[in-house]
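Example 9 (inverse folding). The structure is encoded as follows.
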């Protein structure tokens, strides 16, 4: 992980009596030992993080992974881990990139609901806020002509003007506030995932689209799976259209029809958006699950579980 700490109190994220540490001297005393999958790449031959040679018998080792199966090398990790901490709902500890919370469950006042709408929907409520002028935008970090999302983009491009940032386009600022301000100038965000796997819905939807106030156009897992996480009328799925040309025609229609476009933001009157920006927040989630953990277990094959 790029962020490095010695000790971090999880109380900041609402978890009491829980300390996160990167100090190796705390290893023996720790109840949980978290290994980020990116640090295990190539294990055991070229591992960037050397595993301890001994472990406390009752200590639980946690496999922390936010990538889909094709992007996660899980060979040689058999019989090591006791818990999974991933984006999948069937993980021992579920750690999504983002989630929605019903407003009635949060007991918000009317003023809070209006603030929730206005904070992330730049063109709501008429003349006081200028609507976005540009149509569609896409931030892509990994470009490969053989990737499904790139192939779809090439078929979409002749019918739709798309501003591309990232490895195959203009450089985009990395600061969250700056990025949000840049993306909010557009109406639609191409939330194209690099893999199509169950529950794999990343920051491409939660941060780049919903948090920035854009309507996400998604390519990834099935529509039904997306609807497990958010209302079906809050996003546009490429599978709903017979071709990229048909999708483009629909986006052009929404661009000219404010009422139809604004309907994609109705969810903001019912839900509050949460984003997992901090890796510390994700790891501290372990503390919440401690009382509900079952008996000590070991995953015989992380690869088998991950590919399922």
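The amino acid assigned to each position is listed next.
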């Amino acid at each position: 992980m790029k962020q490095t700490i010695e000790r971090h109190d999880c109380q900041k994220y609402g978890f009491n009596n829980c300390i996160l540490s990167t100090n190796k001297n705390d290893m023996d005393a720790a109840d949980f030992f978290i290994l980020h999958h990116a640090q295990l790449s190539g294990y055991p031959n070229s591992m960037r993080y050397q595993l301890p040679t001994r472990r406390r018998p009752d200590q639980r080792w946690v496999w922390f992974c936010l990538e889909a199966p094709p992007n996660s090398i899980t060979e040689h990790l058999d019989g090591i881990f006791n818990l999974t901490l991933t984006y999948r709902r069937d993980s021992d500890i579920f750690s999504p990139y983002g989630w929605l919370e019903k407003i009635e469950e949060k007991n918000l006042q009317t003023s809070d609901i209006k603030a929730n709408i206005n904070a992330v929907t730049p063109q709501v409520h008429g003349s006081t806020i200028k609507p976005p002028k540009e149509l569609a935008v896409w931030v892509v970090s990994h470009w490969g002509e053989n990737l499904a999302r790139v192939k779809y983009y090439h078929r979409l491009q002749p019918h739709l003007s798309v501003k591309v940032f990232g490895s195959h386009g203009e450089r985009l600022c990395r600061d969250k506030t700056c990025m949000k301000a840049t993306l909010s100038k557009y109406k639609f965000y191409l939330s194209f995932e690099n893999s199509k796997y169950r529950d794999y819905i990343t920051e491409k939807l939660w941060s780049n689209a919903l948090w920035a106030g854009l309507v996400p156009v998604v390519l990834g897992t099935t529509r039904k799976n997306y609807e497990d996480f958010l209302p079906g009328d809050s996003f546009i799925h490429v599978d709903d259209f017979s071709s990229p040309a048909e999708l483009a025609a629909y986006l052009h229609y929404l661009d000219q029809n404010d009422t139809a476009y604004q309907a994609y933001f109705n969810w903001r009157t019912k839900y509050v958006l949460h984003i997992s920006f901090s890796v510390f927040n994700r790891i501290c989630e372990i503390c919440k699950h401690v009382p509900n953990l079952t008996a000590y277990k070991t995953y015989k094959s992380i690869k088998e579980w991950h590919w399922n």
